[in-house]
């Protein structure tokens, strides 16, 4: 998670993040509230009874340390529990409360998502808690929630209500909220198709202790091809976040520049906010000075080394395809012609192969099999261009969603071998 010095005003930070949460359909017009505690002890918070989809910076309220209120509206009716959390946890500087559908589902079942689905979700979400019901806007609700945070929780489900997460800065709080909802959505989807597989302590440690060792170097001036690839990566990473194929803390995207060099997303940076200049140039054992490449960079490099035809690679966590990754149920893409033509047969890679230093991750994709399911870690998709890789990622996720939906209707009917043979002939598939 990001812990860099924040120079953005709380009004702008809250306004922009609420816009993002609303755009992602993770809250409703009237639901949810965000707050920041500044270095002077003031609490900046969203207002009561203002359209969350049309919030302006002037709508954000400041409740000063002396209790006075600055702003054109009253503060959120949930201000009491924000205040209670800040009092219980001096380390907390930001709070996100919203009603994302998946976590609301857990709240009305009196349960919490098990974040051991993925190493990143488990790391980002921190300790998970459950706060018993109390009427919204009351001091009793503040006491119930604050007790969970006082006990060391960072992500708390509110019974029959929603979720509250807190962080040491606003970026951390948002990323925690997003990762928690992602885990919840994936669990709900996965439970519709099979038994869910969770990671044990050694598997979590395996991912946590991986490292990427590159020697820093100063690359020459960027060619027009590099500039163009940076633009494309920036565009498609942002699009992927907005289409929920990627989330801010998960996934990596790269494009080959030359035989031994490629551009890749940086580590520990919010994916949607990346600029073209943020992508990291990797050349052999070297990486661009002043930047840290994605921790998946070695896996990308192994794939490029083995497969000269691959020009772009994406590791991603779209919810429906990722649901297959946390079960043992195979994803059969022989459902509609487009799915098979774009993806062929999707391989399944065992957990942790992408972290190993033996480069075996490259064995799970080839020209005949451009995509793979990574156990408990989403999907891997390759392409001949950035657009091609992104297109295949979209098709993979759409296919997975269609298969999950179909299972709720009846038996899934896949195309027979004669149909597959016809497709191979028609589209020159080797």
CATH superfamily of the largest domain: Class II aldolase/adducin N-terminal domain
Shape: globular
Number of domains: 2
Main sheet overview: 9 strands, mixed
CA-CA gap between termini: 43 Å
**Would you identify the CATH architecture of the largest domain?**
3-Layer(aba) Sandwich
Low-confidence stretches: none
The average pLDDT score comes to: 93
Sheet/helix structural class: alpha+beta
What's the CATH first level of the largest domain? Alpha Beta
* Alpha-carbon Rg, integer: 23 Å
- CATH topology name of the largest domain, in short, is L-fuculose-1-phosphate Aldolase
Count of DSSP H/I helices:
13
The run of helices and strands is HEEEEHEHHEHEEHHEHEEEEHEHHEEEHH
**What percentage of residues falls in helices of 4 or more residues?**
25-40%
Strand content: 15-25%
Number of strands: 17
Strand order across the biggest sheet? Answer: 9-13-12-11-10-14-17-16-15
Describe the structure.
- The chain has 430 residues and is an alpha+beta fold.
- Helix content is 36%, strand content 16%.
- It has 13 helices and 17 strands.
- The strands form two sheets. It has a nine-stranded mixed β-sheet with strand order 9-13-12-11-10-14-17-16-15, with helices on both faces. The chain has an eight-stranded mixed β-sheet with strand order 4-3-2-1-5-8-7-6, with helices on both faces.
- It is globular.
- It starts with 9 loop residues before the first helix and ends with a helix.
- The mean pLDDT is 93.
- It comes from Rhodopirellula baltica (strain DSM 10527 / NCIMB 13988 / SH1).
- It is an enzyme of class 4 (lyase).
């Amino acid at each position: 998670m990001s812990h860099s010095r924040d120079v953005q005003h709380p009004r702008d930070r809250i306004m922009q993040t609420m816009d993002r949460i609303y755009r992602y359909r993770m809250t409703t017009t009237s639901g949810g509230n965000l707050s920041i505690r500044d270095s002077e002890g003031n609490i900046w918070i969203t207002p009561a009874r203002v359209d969350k989809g049309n919030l302006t910076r002037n709508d954000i309220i400041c409740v000063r340390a002396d209790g006075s209120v600055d702003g054109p509206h009253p503060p959120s009716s949930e201000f009491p529990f924000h205040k209670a959390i800040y009092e219980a946890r001096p380390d907390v500087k930001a709070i996100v409360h919203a009603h994302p559908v998946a976590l609301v589902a857990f709240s009305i079942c009196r349960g919490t998502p098990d974040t051991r689905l993925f190493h990143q979700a488990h790391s980002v979400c921190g300790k998970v808690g459950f706060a018993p019901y109390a009427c919204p806007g009351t001091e009793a609700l503040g006491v119930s929630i604050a007790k969970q945070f006082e006990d060391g929780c960072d992500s708390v489900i509110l019974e029959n209500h929603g979720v509250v997460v807190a962080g040491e800065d606003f970026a951390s709080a948002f990323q925690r909220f997003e990762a928690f909802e992602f885990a919840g959505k994936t669990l709900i989807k996965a439970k519709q198709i099979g038994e869910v597989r969770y990671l044990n302590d050694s598997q979590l440690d395996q991912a946590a202790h991986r490292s990427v060792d590159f020697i820093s170097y100063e690359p020459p001036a960027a060619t027009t091809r590099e500039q163009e690839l940076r633009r494309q990566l920036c565009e498609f990473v942002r699009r992927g976040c907005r289409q929920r194929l990627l989330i801010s803390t998960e996934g990596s995207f790269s494009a080959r520049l030359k035989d031994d060099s490629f551009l890749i997303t940086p580590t520990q940076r919010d994916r949607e906010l990346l600029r073209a200049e943020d992508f990291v140039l990797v050349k052999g054992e070297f990486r661009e000075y002043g930047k840290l490449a994605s921790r998946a960079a070695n896996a990308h490099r192994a794939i490029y080394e083995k497969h000269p035809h691959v020009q772009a690679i994406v590791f991603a966590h779209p919810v429906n395809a990722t649901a297959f990754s946390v079960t043992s149920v195979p994803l059969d893409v022989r459902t509609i012609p487009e799915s098979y033509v774009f993806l062929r047969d999707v391989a399944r890679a065992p957990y942790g192969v992408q972290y190993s230093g033996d480069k075996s991750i490259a064995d799970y994709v080839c020209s005949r099999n451009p995509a793979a399911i990574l156990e408990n870690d989403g999907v891997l998709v390759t392409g001949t261009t950035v657009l091609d890789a992104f297109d295949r990622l979209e098709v993979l996720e759409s296919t997975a969603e269609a298969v999950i939906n179909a299972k709720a209707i009846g038996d899934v009917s896949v195309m027979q071998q004669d149909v597959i043979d016809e497709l191979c002939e028609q589209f020159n598939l080797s």
